[in-house]
Amino acid sequence: MREKAQKKSVEDKAPSWRVRMLMWGINLILVGIAIVAIYVLTVFLQMPSLDAILHETRPAAITFLDRDGNEIRSANRIMGAPVSVQTLPPHVWQAIVAIEDKRFFDHGPIDVRGITRAMISNLVHGRLAAGGSSITQQTAKNIFLSREKKISRKIQELILSYWLENRFDKNQILDLYMNRVSLVGGMRGIDAASRALFQTPANKMTLAQSAQIAAMLKAPTTYSPLKNPNKNIARARVVLTEMVRQGYVTLDAARGAAQTLGPAKGIPDTNIYRYWTDFVVDEVRSRIGEFDSDLFVYTTLDKKLQERVAATLMQKVSPYQGAVVAMTPGGAIRAMAGGADYQTSQFNRALALRQPGSSFKPVVYLVALENGLTPQSYVNDSPFAVGDYNPKNYNEKYYGDMTLANAFAKSVNSVPLKLTHEYGIDTMLDMAARLGVGNRLRREYSTVLGASEMSLLDLTNIYAVIWNNGKSVHPFSITKITTPRGDVLYQRNPSDPIQVLSESTVGHMGQLLADVVGPGGTGRRAAGAHVLGGKTGTSNGNRDAWFIGRARDWVIGVWMGNDDFTPMNSKITGGTIPAEIFRDIVK
């Protein structure tokens, strides 16, 4: 009896199978919680540095503006201008909230009601028909995370959402979202999208444009007003409807906006400015050194002239290459094209060193004019040699006695050689130095006929001095450099020009240049209204053909040739296609 009682007592003390199952369940739950906690901790430790990404570095962006302050293009711009709820018209951010997260200001990091509604909708449709991510979650994903669809990324997204809502208020989170969302071509921010699609900054977007930008947020490519305008417009109408329902805009305002919805124009082609902006970047560095912050660069470019230059060059030079520089007589560069097509070749031929041929001859004639000759003075065109150097006229004809004006207009070779022999090669080089190019020239007679290389920009500058009433000219492309806030980093403050040519010398030279575009001159194809004069040039073997002339307020230099220095067609001289390019630009 005692043994049976003891056995029963032990059985009473032993846990029942229900208790054991409960304990097993508790242990499994604890282990599961521990595993999940370890996994979440591991995911957390793999998260990126939050502060580092919030203050990420990027290449400094440069915005180039023309002479009237209009934007030409930008370089290195991967983000639009910063925007905020406070600086934008209300309808811009309201369109985003209305379509993406209408309860954004009422819920926490996640919208439980929105997620539940999305899950039910997806179950009903049997596919992923709706999303429930809040703007905070989308911000976390856009700023910190990759687009990989993994559970770990979703956990990180939730952690980051709570971190964002703990650190920032709702308006600040919305600002982050609007500045970091990617909608067009890898650029970030609604300002970048607005500029690319509508050529307007975000703070000037209309209600209709705001709805079209908001329509893209669901799927930027699918609802792009550039690639799929019909889908974009249809969804933009949904955005406007939601804005009315949520009390952001009136029905009349929405109807008015709906009538203006349309396809986006897209980013205009700015390649016609690329030779210019590449040149200006180098000029920026020469003014302020290396830079690591955004800049606004105010330039001397005339956009309409640049467009004409680029279009004319593309039409006229094929199958060869060409370049054009246009500046005012005072040195402000108004246009620059370094080739026929920037996408094909980025090499800027306006800065390349080539032989100027006869277009260098005005330097020698200026020496003669300073020494008392006039356009009516007689000179003799006949064979001339210096040692083994024995150049001939282009057509191998000699005209004998002729006026200085006639010798210049026909671009004979013997006369400038004889003038150099009479006045001295050092005098000629000194004149070139006064005009800004002497230190680059070889001390030899072939230089007289343009054998010493120089750039189109240098050559155009020589003529600018003549047409600047004989005053020194220093070409410039920048008038001001500022920060985006307007702080001035550089302001052009030119010194007074130096009088390097006398009034009488300039007057006589102007007459010689005018005769070149007259009926008997080599540059007659350049003649036209407002054309004051010019000069042709062709290097040995027709490798380079030049025309530099004055029309309206511009001194324009044109070069044509092959990059590999091979000859062009023998019929191409400075008086043919280059002169025609000049004429077509200014007519």
Overview of the structural elements:
The chain has 2 domains: 78-258, Penicillin binding protein transpeptidase fold, CATH 1.10.3810.10; 323-586, 3-Layer(aba) Sandwich (Beta-lactamase), CATH 3.40.710.10. It has 21 helices and 14 strands. It is 43% helix and 12% strand. The model has no long low-confidence stretch (mean pLDDT 87). Helix 6 (135-144) crosses helix 8 (170-180), helix 14 packs antiparallel against helix 21 (577-586) and helix 15 crosses helix 18. It is of the alpha+beta class and 587 residues long. A hairpin with a 5-residue loop joins strand 1 and strand 2.
SSE topology sketch:
Elements: H1 2-13, H2 17-45, H3 50-54, E1 62-65, E2 71-75, H4 90-100, H5 112-125, H6 135-144, H7 151-167, H8 170-180, E3 182-184, E4 187-188, H9 190-198, H10 207-216, H11 229-245, H12 251-258, H13 274-288, E5 295-299, H14 303-316, E6 321-327, E7 333-337, H15 362-370, E8 378-381, E9 400-403, H16 404-409, H17 414-423, H18 425-434, H19 456-467, E10 478-482, E11 488-491, H20 503-516, E12 531-538, E13 544-551, E14 554-561, H21 577-586
Parallel strand pairs: 1-5
Antiparallel strand pairs: 1-2, 3-4, 5-10, 6-7, 6-14, 8-9, 10-11, 12-13, 13-14
Helix pairs in contact: 4-10, 4-11, 6-7, 6-8, 10-11, 11-12, 14-21, 15-17, 15-18, 15-20
